[in-house]
Specification:
Number of helices: 8
Low-confidence stretches: none
CATH superfamily: NAD(P)-binding Rossmann-like Domain
Oligomer: single chain
CATH class: Alpha Beta
Distance between the termini: 43 Å
Radius of gyration: 17 Å
CATH topology: Rossmann fold
Number of strands: 7
Shape: globular
Length: about 250
Amino acid sequence: MCSLITGGSRGIGFSIAKALAKAGSDIVLMARNKMRLVKAQNDLAGIGRNVRIYPFDMVEVDGIKEIYSKIIDDTGGIDILINNAGGLRRGSAETLSLKDWNFVINLNLSSVFALSQAFAKERIEKEKRGKIINISSVTSEVTRKHIAAYAASKGGIRQLTKSLAVDWAQYHINVNAIGPGYFKTDLTRPLWQDEMFDNWIKKRTPEGRWGSPDELGYAAVFLASPASDFITGQTLYVDGGFLSTMGSVS
């Protein structure tokens, strides 16, 4: 078994890669920064699985088909695809530039479609099963100020997950998503280092805390395993109860 994780050099992506490696999967990591990839590769070495790294910027959507073909040639095939790479540009909707909008949509949504398509074509051609796990967000359901592009991209991920699941179920390719609540990562650093926002999250989340990226790894192992073979088109929200409570999220 071999798993490909985009944005896998740190944060949520690395935690998922570590969990899948511990579950017995070989690992392929993709990310922009080669030094971080090398560090992640070294950090995973002790688990005893084969770990390959491929520096690549997922914003370059037109290059995804080529890099994926190289990965297939090198590995012989990917069984599990984790579409984790993502980013955001903060700003009020009336001032957000089209350049920033396009950056977020390309990285968070268009690249997911392009890589998923390449994955599915290879699986279909070889008549092999496959699992796709997209990383969505609670902002696919609710939102707050200054993240219009990010919220739009994650809402798109929710619906793309459903659409791909319907198209590819006949080929035994399961497509699901994980919707994290508020987790302490590099991406959310400005939020959890803000005392007022930190306190608000803890009060707004029934569990009373931020999530740990390792907790998303466990969810990914479930969706990647035979235990989820009859689950497709779903988003599993790992949010400490955030979406279940009443109250403002502004």
